[in-house]
Design goal:
Blueprint lengths: L9 E13 L6 E11 L7 E7 L12 H12 L3 E5 L11 H24 L1 H4 L1 E11 L1 H11 L35 E5 L4 H13 L5
Parallel strand pairs: 3-4, 3-5, 5-6
Antiparallel strand pairs: 1-2, 2-4
Helix pairs in contact: 2-4
Length: about 210
């Protein structure tokens, strides 16, 4: 188990609503969903979870992307449980520096919401809440790295513009508001912590030392 595939069949629960949040430029919330994958016939009561986050430059993609399905299916065959999540996307008509910075931050908030939702429901889905991992591609990688490493003091100025997007871990449903978004590890594929780079650029231009 874990090192080799030990389950042939994987069950998937489609369209679990994990959050509801307002997209950039919208006036009403959008429901966000995840698909949950688990090995059929598994008797373990606490299983490590991998949450996958698709790529698409924050303007395209979905939880049903073929690579996300492949990741989750293979992980479940090895004995993990896995979840592929949606997050808020930016309309192509809203693409700008500010729009992308704000939407990347919204994606980070949505990753946090998914973590906290699944931890809150760990008994229902038989998850070991101390063994939650993230896997992201491209934009998804940026979102998981920012969720892991960005402090409130590092929030980009664009996220405070009207309307203020609020703290990193403030999105989602009230039921899991107090649950920690801390995870055990992450696998970022071709992505980076965009705001660290932006801050270092500003520090260099101002003559101060970047941290």
């Amino acid at each position: 188990r874990y090192a080799e595939p030990v389950f042939e069949t994987v069950n998937m629960i489609d369209g679990i609503r994990y959050s509801s949040a307002i997209k950039e430029g919208a006036s009403s919330p959008t429901d966000l969903y995840l698909d949950f994958y688990e090995p059929e016939g598994d008797t373990f009561t606490k299983r490590p979870l991998v949450i996958t986050v698709f790529g698409g430059a924050f303007v395209a993609g979905g939880r049903d992307f073929v690579d996300m399905q492949a990741y989750c299916t293979r992980l479940a065959q090895h004995g993990y449980v896995a979840a592929s999540i949606d997050y808020r996307l930016l309309s192509i008509w809203q693409i700008s520096h500010t729009g992308l910075m704000r939407d990347a931050y919204m994606a980070t908030q949505d990753v946090s919401s998914a973590i906290r939702f699944l931890k809150f429901h760990c008994d229902e889905y038989r998850i070991d809440s101390t063994q939650v991992f993230l896997l992201g591609n491209s934009a998804g990688s940026i979102a998981i790295l920012c969720d892991l490493f960005m402090d409130e003091s590092e929030r980009p100025a664009e996220t405070f513009e009207d309307p203020d997007l609020g703290p990193i871990h403030s999105s989602g449903f009230e039921e899991y508001a107090g649950v920690s978004a801390k995870v055990a590890g992450a696998i970022p594929h071709w992505g980076g912590k965009v705001w660290a780079t932006a801050r270092q650029d500003r520090d260099r231009k101002s003559g101060s030392a970047g941290m």
